[in-house]
Amino acid sequence: MAAVHPALAPYVRSVVAYDVAFAGPGVHIGMPSTGLTFVLPLDEPLTVAWDGDPASRTVGWTSVSGLHTTAAAVHHGDHQRGIQLSLTPAGARAVWGVPASALAGRLVGLADVAPVLADLPERLAGEASWEARLEVLQHALLDAVRRHEAPSLRPEVARAMALLTRGVPVAATAGDVGYSRRRLGTLVHDEVGVTPKTFQRLARFSRAHARLRRAALAGEVSVATVAAETGYADQAHLAREWTGFAGCSPTEWLRREFPIVQATGEHHGAA
């Protein structure tokens, strides 16, 4: 995880430089979230498609996707290196000059959304160290933000999205910001391309995914505990949502992504 420049903090949630060796070719599950994904592979083009939809497959030196409710199937060989960013909805306007809604449910290349940045993969490939690559990337992002002079989200829309992210019901969120549910739905959809309820579900799912991932990295996990900690009614509720968004159950996801971890139900269990 690389540090995010303060001027980019409203637009970039995370920057991760990755260098991963696999046991062999396979498919990584790209999980839905409330962020937009921006990937810059280094050694070979990235092959990605929406899970279950081979026609959506793209191959390229960049991958850009908006908010989505279907997992991405990211194909890999024995080794992958690159940089992956997660952008906020405001980051779509600031970095690419388009609203997040324009990219909802789409997989595209960087040249399709921001041609001025099309040479970024070549510039990164020309650097010999991670430090140098990250510096090139940071300068490119800062230049993009200055170039677009992206306006901030309307304060009431930004507040509504923050409330939805925290799990405040849609009706209560609409009342808090002084809108009808219909008006709030229009404004949120215009900004991110999904309804307020879907945005809220994505936020809750993203919390559960992050919590389960941390538990898996620690070598033990309880799906029931994660469900309770992240706002689901019970483990079955989490399992239904997880299957809908990820295309598999939490236990199957753990088996595929963390094969040495043993998932448990009502208690913590070590691998």
TrEMBL record:
Signal peptide: none annotated. Residues 164-256 form the HTH araC/xylS-type domain. It holds the Pfam family HTH_18. Keywords: DNA-binding, Transcription, Transcription regulation. InterPro entries: AraC_XylS_family_regulators, Homeodomain-like_sf, HTH_AraC. Gene3D superfamilies: Homeodomain-like. This is AraC family transcriptional regulator.
